[in-house]
Amino acid sequence: MKANANQTVTEQSTLNDGKKSGNREMPHIFLILFIIIIVATILTWIIPAGQYTRVMDNALGREVIDPNSFKFIRNTPVGPFEMFVCIEEGLINAANICFLIFTAFASLQVIQRTGAIDAFIASMLRKTQKHPASANIIIVGIMIVFSVWGSTGTFSYEEVIAFIPIFVTVAYALGYDAMVGVAISVIPVGIGFASATINPFTIGVAQSIAQLKLFSGLGFRLVVLAVMTTLLILYTVIYARKIKKDPRKSITRNVDMSEFQTSSEMLETEMTTCRKLILIALLITIATMAWGLLTQGWYINECAALFLILTIVTGIIAKWNPNKIAKEWVRGLSKAVLPALTVGIARSVLVVFEHGHQIDSIIHGCVALIQNLSLYASGIGMLLFQTLLNLLIPSGSGQAAVSMPIMTPIADLIGMNRQIAVLIFQFGDGFSNLIWPTSFMVVACAMAKIPLSKYYKWLLPFFGICFLFQCVFIMIAIAINYQ
After folding, report:
1. What is the pTM assigned to this prediction?
2. How far is the C-alpha of 62 from the C-alpha of 59, rounded, in Å?
3. Which pairing describes strands 62-65 and 54-57: parallel, antiparallel, or unpaired?
4. d(CA 320, CA 139)
5. What is the pLDDT of residue 252?
6. Can you give 182-200 as a three-state secondary structure string?
7. CB contact at 8 A, 67 and 270
8. Residue 448 pLDDT > 90, yes or no?
9. CA distances to 4, 39, 176, 187 from 12, in Å
10. CB half-sphere exposure, 149, CA atoms < 13 A
């Protein structure tokens, strides 16, 4: 990646700002989100307000819905001024995630300025030039590691988002494009997260509410992880080979990606002892993060603290004075403005519906349709419900607290095993993160400078395949009474 200390925020913070895709200028991501917020605001005047009673589950330490308590209440539509207040509240509600993104980007900026990342990319590129077939091995290896790691819940969108420019640069260095860079980094994390082998934040919360043994049914989820990861690898490798053979078939061929191109100067970057130590410090930080999330109950705040520590350690290894560390850290903060604020503004959609009290009404309406279907049709209906709900409640654990108290009694009522209801929850919550504009994929596209229209052109066929396989897995689970 070109190390340019004078790179402006505007250069980093547009999907295709000022560039043309065909004859049309692509809208900025903030404009897209603002339109969605306006639509949500209008819907608060159309959809009746309703409310479930929340009760404290002492075992979980969180509030859950009483499924039999729904009632319609006085309408509380959101006005134009209140809509802007909701945007501010969305930023506040997502403050911990935003700060994690800021610290991660700032830390990587410091590392990048030492030349460690450029040296790593140059070293890897030299090896692949000697052994061209190793490029595919690198792609597949990264995707498998990220998918398996993501399935544990210890590696998620928040942690990988800052690394996207690095992976896009690596993809270009290997002869591919920005979409491959996203496909080998962020999307495998999403696939793993959706498969949720031992994810305490989704499958753990959902199984606790459904009163199932923690992480039970692991064997079936391992099969899901293997199949879905294989589908993604095949889809990505086929695309990667196609554009390497003919670069004109790249979906980003008309987008300015000059900042991700490797230069002759970068390829000559030497892997010194200092740079090796910095990369080792980065790996230790990531390993410590995984350990803390899995065994110590760490979450976003602790991860942000680790990135702060990494910044200081990197500066010490590079023998920088404190002033230089601080200046580079601030430059890194500027690069994080777009992804951090995107998360907060996307959260505003949920805040608008919370102010208008429409979320529970939507849930109640969907549930009324689902519970009157046959067992197999109910399974697909529940999947559609969870997929829709993920647009309104992007938090996995938060969504489990809302949906599982409702899905569990419905599963009991129609004779569905509760483990299957949990499986459906994890599918709807996880895989739909790849498509909703309120998810981290919007941030990923912004960082990779991929217009959303082009991202969807690449993704939607794959998501359609994924959805079919989700339906197949649900039907198999029902047929074998998955427990």
Report:
1. 0.79
2. 8
3. antiparallel
4. 34
5. 87
6. HHCCHHHHHHHHHHCCCCH
7. no
8. no
9. 11, 28, 20, 21
10. 23
The C-alpha atoms of residue 35 and residue 352 are separated, in whole angstroms, by 13
Q: What are the angstrom distances between the C-alpha of 361 and each of 65, 354, 418? A: 13, 11, 24
Q: Hey, which residues does 50 pair with through a beta bridge? A: 72
Query: Which segments of 248-395 does DSSP mark as H helices, in order?
Result: 264-267, 273-295, 300-317, 322-335, 337-356, 359-370, 375-392
Q: Is 470 helix (H, G, I), strand (E, B) or coil?
A: helix
In sequence order, what DSSP letters do the residues of 419-449 get, joined into one string? HHHHHHHHHHHHHGGGT-TTSHHHHHHHHHT
pLDDT in tens, 33-91: 899 899 999 999 999 999 988 888 776 666 777 888 889 999 999 999 999 999 999 99
**Can you tell me the distance from the alpha carbon of 444 to that of 439, in angstroms, rounded to the nearest whole number?**
9
Cα torsion 449, 453, 456, 457 to 10°: value is -110
What is residue 388's three-state secondary structure? helix
Whole-number Å distance between alpha carbons of 196 and 223: 11
The DSSP symbol for 247 reads G
Q: Which residue's structure tokens are 């590392």?
A: 111
Burial (CB count within 10 angstroms: exposed 0-12, middle 13-18, buried 19+), residue 326? middle
CB atoms within 10 A of CB 181: 29
Cβ atoms within 10 Å of 442's Cβ, excluding its own: 22
Most distant CA pair in the chain, distance: 70
